[in-house]
Amino acid sequence: MPKVAPRETKERPPIPVGDHVLTLLEVKPIEQENRFEPPIGTKPDGTPEFKIKKQFVWVFQSNRDDDAGDPYEYVVFTGRYYGDDRAKLTAFLQMLLPDADDAMRASLDTDMLVGRQWKTKIQLVKTQKGNEVPRHLYLIPVEAQRFDPDEVKGTEVPL
């Protein structure tokens, strides 16, 4: 399946509350410091050293556009562990693939989901710090259809 070329990163308005159809553009594995836990030591330069947290970043594009005519982007961060009911990836994949069994979800190639669409409702949720952030209330798969990356606004297919 063709990969979607990287998009330019720019400051974007947050996705608005309401109904959307989201198209999955990419799933990126990332590693970053886990600053939600106490430091595990000190680096040679004297700064705190934190455990590395491995995550997936799920990048979606909405069917709705902002004032500049660019589609809204919605991003979900999950861990990489599937199986435990407390794991965010488990709950997320159960929404993305409600008809799949656990064995299929656990061995999923995320590239197979790129281009698929889900209906959702976005709501604002307060974080522990008191900030309001957009969150999906549900994800309902839209009937499978052929994905053409050229039809996704702001992207190019590499040759």
Identify the notable features of this structure and list them briefly.
mainly beta; two-stranded antiparallel sheet
Please summarize the sheet with the most strands. 5 strands, antiparallel
Element-by-element helix/strand order: EEEEEHHEE
How large is the count of helical segments? 2
* Overall outline: globular
Q: What's the mean pLDDT score?
A: 85
N-to-C terminal Cα separation, in Å? 13 Å
Order of strands in the sheet with most strands: 5-4-1-6-7
Number of strands: 7
**Helix- and strand-based class?**
mainly beta
Strand content: 35-45%
Weakly predicted, low-confidence segments: 1-5
Name the helicity range.
under 10%
Note the quaternary state here. Answer: single chain
Radius of gyration: 17 Å
How would you briefly describe this protein structure?
The chain has 159 residues and is mainly beta.
Task: Describe what this molecule looks like in 3D.
It is a single chain. The chain has 159 residues and is mainly beta. Helices cover 9% and strands 40% of the residues. The protein has a 5-stranded antiparallel beta sheet with strand order 5-4-1-6-7, covered by helices on one side. It has a two-stranded antiparallel sheet with strand order 2-3. It is globular and about 50 Å long.
